[in-house]
Design brief:
Elements lengths: L7 H4 L17 E12 L2 E13 L4 E5 L6 H9 L6 E6 L2 E2 L5 H11 E4 L11 H9 L8 H14 L15 H13 L5 E5 L7 H16 L3 E5 L3 H4 L4 E6 L2 E7 L6
Parallel strand pairs: 3-8, 3-9, 6-7, 7-8
Antiparallel strand pairs: 1-2, 1-4, 4-5, 9-10
């Protein structure tokens, strides 16, 4: 079955969750003086110096930089996975820094989908079960039948309906990443975050994955991804370069006029 990368992907959603933004003039993602330090046996290690960043709803943003530059730290802070040492994180009008761990878990289940470089699939669950599992983190859970239908729908749209019963070990890297993408989208989040989503894939498979991510973004959702690949970064609306824990450049992508 051919991969679906066009708008059809988003025309089949059954019960969309609203993108909650406090004010149209307010950035969807707002980082104010965010910093992150870690305590090690050798003392304090600064992963991210105080950083400000604003991203409007619907924008596709690539974060690039060398290993250890702080780009994944920014992504993890936006995801609510990593708490900043200082500053404030506001996503869609919600102050993440004020939420408890339980509150962050509920927020992620409804508002964000995450695609990891190493897939992070449950090895003892089938592709279908991995996608269904993520739907159980919704604040308003669907019935078992609805969860199964939604998961099958997404697996079909990423071209994997015939492999729904396969374990991750029975899938190629590209197939596992497509399962991970379906899992990230199962709750129809307004925000998708991807950390090196093509880092372990060959160029052709990586291009397919980015096509699927682009289909998500054209539906008006916000996409932020980390990459080392300048070709992939050029597909974003905006590229943020990070070095030594600082944002050193922030540029919109030039699009040819027709």
């Amino acid at each position: 079955m051919a991969l679906s990368t066009g708008p059809r992907w988003w025309r089949v959603r059954r019960t969309p969750h609203p993108v909650v933004v406090a004010d149209p003039a307010t950035p969807f993602i707002q980082l104010d003086a965010i910093a992150r330090e870690y305590q090690t046996g050798r003392g304090s290690l600064t992963a991210l110096h105080p950083t400000d960043l604003a991203i409007p709803v619907g924008q596709t943003v690539a974060i690039v930089g060398p290993s250890g530059s702080g780009k994944s730290t920014i992504l993890n802070v936006i995801a609510g996975i990593d708490r900043p040492s200082g500053g404030r994180v506001t996503i869609g009008g919600t102050n993440l820094t004020a939420l408890s761990e339980e509150g962050l878990t509920r927020w992620r289940g409804e508002q964000v989908g995450i695609v990891f470089q190493f897939f992070q699939l449950m090895p003892t669950l089938s592709a279908l079960e991995n996608v269904i599992l993520a739907s159980e983190f919704r604040a308003r859970p669907l019935g078992a039948g609805q969860r199964r239908r939604r998961a099958l729908e997404l697996l079909e749209l990423v071209g994997l309906s015939d492999l729904a019963d396969h374990l991750p070990s029975e899938l190629s890297g590209g197939e596992q990443q497509r399962v991970a993408l379906a899992r990230a989208l199962v709750n129809d989040p307004p925000l998708l975050l991807a950390d090196e989503p093509t880092g372990n894939l060959d160029s052709a498979t990586g291009e397919r994955i980015m096509g699927l991510l682009a289909a998500f973004a054209t539906a008006g959702r916000t996409l932020v991804f980390v990459t080392h690949d300048p070709v992939l970064a050029a597909r974003a609306d905006r590229t943020i370069r990070v070095r030594d824990g600082n944002i050193v450049s922030d540029q919109l992508t030039d699009r040819p006029t027709t």
